[in-house]
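Record Semaphorin-4D-like, 623 aa.
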Amino acid sequence: MIIAFWLIFEVAFHLDVADGHDHHHHHHHPRVIITEKDCAVRKHTLQGTHSRVELLQGPRHRTLYAGGGGRLFYLDFREHDGKEMPVFNCSNSCSRNISSCDYDITLLHECKNGSALFICRTDRTTPVCCSASRETGFCDECHPEKAVAPVSVHERAPSLYVGEELYTTANMVNGGNHVGIRRHYGHRVSIWPSDNVTEQNYVALVASPRPNKIQDRIYAFLVQRNADQHREADLWVSLVTQVCQADLGGPKSFLQRSWTSHLSALLSCGIAEKKLYFNQLLDVAVLEQDIWKDSMVYALFSNGWGMTAVCVFTMGDIDYVFTNSPFKGYMGTVPHPRPGTCVEDSTKLPQDVLRLVKDHPEMKDWVRPVNNSDPIFISHHHQYKHIRVDRVNSSLGDSYHVILLTLGSGRVHKVLEQDGHTFVIAELRPFAYCCHIRNVLLQPHTKMLYVSSSSEVVELDLRSCQAYGPRCEDCVMARDPYCGWNGTHCAPVTSSAIQDVKHGNPQLCTQREYVPSIPQKVKRHTAHFLSCPMLSTHATYIWYHNGTKVESLVTDSLCLLLIEAMDTSMAGTYRCNASEMNYAKVIVEYKLSVESKAQGLAPKYLLLYLLSLTLSSMLPQDL
Ligand SMILES: *[C@@H]1O[C@H](CO)[C@@H](O)[C@H](O)[C@H]1NC(C)=O
Ligand SMILES: *[C@@H]1O[C@H](CO)[C@@H](O)[C@H](O)[C@H]1NC(C)=O
Ligand SMILES: *[C@@H]1O[C@H](CO)[C@@H](O)[C@H](O)[C@H]1NC(C)=O
Ligand SMILES: *[C@@H]1O[C@H](CO)[C@@H](O)[C@H](O)[C@H]1NC(C)=O
Ligand SMILES: *[C@@H]1O[C@H](CO)[C@@H](O)[C@H](O)[C@H]1NC(C)=O
Ligand SMILES: *[C@@H]1O[C@H](CO)[C@@H](O)[C@H](O)[C@H]1NC(C)=O
Ligand SMILES: *[C@@H]1O[C@H](CO)[C@@H](O)[C@H](O)[C@H]1NC(C)=O
Ligand SMILES: *[C@@H]1O[C@H](CO)[C@@H](O)[C@H](O)[C@H]1NC(C)=O
Ligand SMILES: *[C@@H]1O[C@H](CO)[C@@H](O)[C@H](O)[C@H]1NC(C)=O
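=>
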């Protein structure tokens, strides 16, 4: 077993080198580490521990609802105020049947045009759904809803409220019956999937509204057990499927109350020349554009080698495959209207159209990333879990995309995307102790990211810029589109701020920062150390004594210079220089002189201190 693991790592490592990705590693290592101490992190503790945490934006900025095991919380991060909503208060009489309070919230949406909450819970046998007042949390209707919510708290089962209709997904219910997309409530008929397909795990449901409402679609993103049983074939494949929102199911005789517009296509992500493929979809984030075809789907994949990648698809490309690809396994002429076309009354569709949808719903062509591109981001070592994407305007008015990726270890990577290239701006560490991230919610208006563990919800301000350092150069080199130099601080960007997202060129900073030389007297024969903060992991930090390079000790965040015993030859100017991208700057400078009386920090304690710093920096970074 251990040997097998070792082999996998060994092989993965060699792959790495063979791929010639070495020069990329630098850029895939976050440039700056930001801990919860460096930025204003606001937290709410959720009572209890929750294996699933559902997050929903609240009625006001910086408020949200969080549903964990059996409890719904309303969290206000402006007031640092949180309260439990009584929806599932055991003594509250809304659902008399369930006497036990041992259940989990599995689904949380806004409904009734934003005036109410729709919330489901499961006790692992019977899911119950209620609509509840958004203000008070009191429920007015609760129903057992086996078809709507997952029975197991561990089933991801993404769902989506569009207007008055709820779309849900089912991976496995009662041994695999009716796996797929369902529609409930609203004015149209409820629709169930007809098929009894192989194992599917749904990752995301996305609405794609069109100028002509009849053409509105829902896309589902999922992984499915590969039907290809070939020994070298991957266990899973990733798919996108479509249904029309206008779908009313087939006529009485065929596909009644089942989708007549359900098609699927495989998603491609990888580098063909290198035979490097990513087959397992992990998460999806959509960046809306004014024109629906341009809206971008950022998809996070993994492969069997423990690597992850991000590929970008456009809605237009997905739509093109569904409207143009040949049908897999079908040679005949394609009937009219083409199966998958959204029509006003699907119950009147001709038999041959319905037959083709039922028998050959899979497209022959794959959906490829935009402009047939390679993955925009590949990581060899990090196990990313969630992806979110934000659009940020720079000081010059051009817009950038920032990708937020969560790690299994409770950390978040903030990644700049620019013309298909990526740069890892920072690693955010919102939790004092490592934990699993259960869920993430981005509020693009306030530029706040909410990250939940099993017991806390943390608010991260994506515009907390001070962490990059006290100087203009630090701010510009950070290449963070949210941040610019306002003349005195690194602060949320404005049109007058100094910023260079494209190149991070610090030469733009006209004010030269004067680094004072700090005089220090050190007693003869005593030990002493000088420390230099390392703000960037991409920079090289070097200590110079009278202009000559000297040995230093590097910890997690400090470059230390150790003087074992002070004497006259150790006096003089000590300067810590950082160089990054052919740009060197002085970080700190000390002028040391000898004070004759021997006393001060004994070498033994100094060494212990240094040892503790070194040990702390050697703790695992990414579990
Ligand atoms: C639950 O309901 C009871 C009775 O209606 C009430 O006294 C109690 O305060 C409620 N608890 C919460 C947390 O709302
Ligand atoms: C809930 O209780 C009502 C009345 O006691 C009963 O008619 C109904 O069948 C019960 N529902 C479930 C799911 O047990
Ligand atoms: C939902 O709310 C919006 C804006 O508040 C309103 O324009 C729309 O008519 C409402 N729709 C329904 C179905 O009530
Ligand atoms: C679906 O598959 C399950 C297990 O393979 C089987 O028991 C069930 O009868 C099937 N249902 C239909 C409708 O084909
Ligand atoms: C795709 O290519 C077109 C034409 O070269 C270009 O205008 C567009 O920006 C590219 N799209 C992306 C997302 O790179
Ligand atoms: C970014 O700029 C565009 C056009 O200049 C504007 O429409 C949009 O509202 C801006 N977005 C933000 C978040 O400021
Ligand atoms: C720059 O930003 C800092 C921190 O946000 C703020 O205190 C200061 O007033 C700003 N200075 C200017 C000139 O806007
Ligand atoms: C460095 O300069 C100081 C003062 O100029 C001198 O005392 C010291 O001996 C020099 N040390 C070395 C190693 O050059
Ligand atoms: C350190 O940086 C300063 C400022 O950029 C530069 O003038 C100096 O030559 C550098 N020192 C060394 C030894 O590289």
